[in-house]
Undecaprenyl-phosphate glucose phosphotransferase
Amino acid sequence: MRKTTGRYSGYIRPFSYLLDLIIINILSLFLLPESIGLFYNVFISIAWVVIALNIGFYEVYRYTKAIEILGKILKQYVLFLVFSFAYIGYFSKYSEPSETVEYSTIAMTLVAVFKFAVFYFLKRFRVVFGGNFRRVIIVGQSKNVCQLQDFFAENPDYGYKLEKVFHFDQDESDESISACFKFALDKNIDEIYCSLSDLSNTQVNQFVDFTDNNLKLLKFLPDSKEIFSRNLVYDYYGYIPIISMRNIPLDTSFNMIVKRVFDIFFSLLIIVGVLSWLTPLLAILIKLESRGPVFFKQKRNGLNYKEFNCYKFRSMRPNEIADLEQVSKNDPRITKIGRFIRKTSIDELPQFFNVVLGDMSVVGPRPHMVSHTEMYARSVDKFMVRHFIKPGITGLAQTNGYRGEVETNYDIINRVKYDIFYVENWSLLLDIKIIYLTVYNAIKGDEKAY
C-alpha cells in the first residue's frame, strides 16, 4: 500500500511566505522613517498575507506560466501599495508618498526576484537531479493523448515522468484495465491521465474507484463534445486542457491556513483550560485502579496514509491485543475509571496534543488502528479517500451515529460516505457545527460510547 501522494515538498510554500515577510519588514526599517511606528510592520504583514490568499499569490504550480506569475506579482504590488497608503493616511502623520512608493517597489522587486528564482530553480532541479517529480501514466489513444505525451517528453522541467501509455479503447477487456492497474501499483504511479473519449462510463468508474482506493490522483483529457454535470476543476498544461475529478477545499492555501489556525487556537484552549488540571487528577485515578502508563499510545494512519502515534488516556488494563481488537460493549479489559472517561469521551482529549504536533485536526475523518486500516482498504470501496486530509478527534460520521465499534459492514460503509462528504465539502462553519454536536452528544450520552 502506497504511503505518499506524489513527490511534493511541503516546505516550499511556507518558506516563500516567510522569505517575503522578512523582505517587506526589514526593508521598511531601512527605507521608512522610525516615526511610522512598529505597528505598521504588523499591519503590512497581515495585509500581505490577506492579499496573497485572496489573489492566489502563492498558488504557483509546476505547470503555471511565467506570465501568470508576473500577473500575480503586479496584483500583489498594487494592492500592497494601496494598503500601505491607507495605513499611513489613516494612522500616521507621516506623508511622503514618494518614499512609500520607493519602499513598495523595491520590496516587490526583491520578492519577484526570489519568486522567479525558486520557480526556475525547481525547474532546473527536476531536469538535472530528477527531484520533485511525479510518475504518471496516460490511458487512451486520442489526439489529446499524443499531445500530452509530447508535452511530458518536451518539458522535463515540469517534473512529470511518463512511465507508460496504455493504448486501449472502450472495446478492450477487463484484463487490459487490470494490467494497467497492476502497473500503476508496481511502479508506484502518482497520477493517471485518462482520455474520456476513449473510455466507456463503466471504465471511467473503474478508474475512479481504483484511484480513490489506492490514494492516486486521477485526471482527464476531455473531448470537446463532452458535457459534464459535476463541478470539475480545469487546469492547462501548455494549451492542453486537463480535468481533475475531485475538488478538495483543503487543498487551497487559504483554507489550510484557516483550518490550521483554528486547530491550534482551539487545541491550546483545551490544553491550557482543561488538560492542565484534569491530567494530574486522572493520572492519580488511573494509577490507583491498575498498573500501567497514564497515556495509551497507538499507531494509526493519517494524512497520505502516514503512520503516527495517537494518544489517549488509558482506559483499559494493559493487554497484548489492544492494537488488534476494537473495544466492544461490556469489554472486560475496560477499567471502572476507563468506562467513565470513554462514556464521556474524556479519553480522547490527549489527541489535542496530536493536533498541535500537526498529525491531526480537531475535526476530520477518525483514524483507525493500522491493522484495521489495511483491512478496510481492501474491503471497503473508496476507504482511502479519507486519507487525503488529516484525521480528526471528532468527525461528521461520529456526530451522525457512526462512532466507536464497527459492528457491521453497514457501519464502516456509511462512515466512509460521511467522511468523503466532509473531504469534498469542508468549511469552517461545518467544523464548528461538528464540534458543537460532539459536545452535545457527550453531555447527552451516546449509546455507542463504551
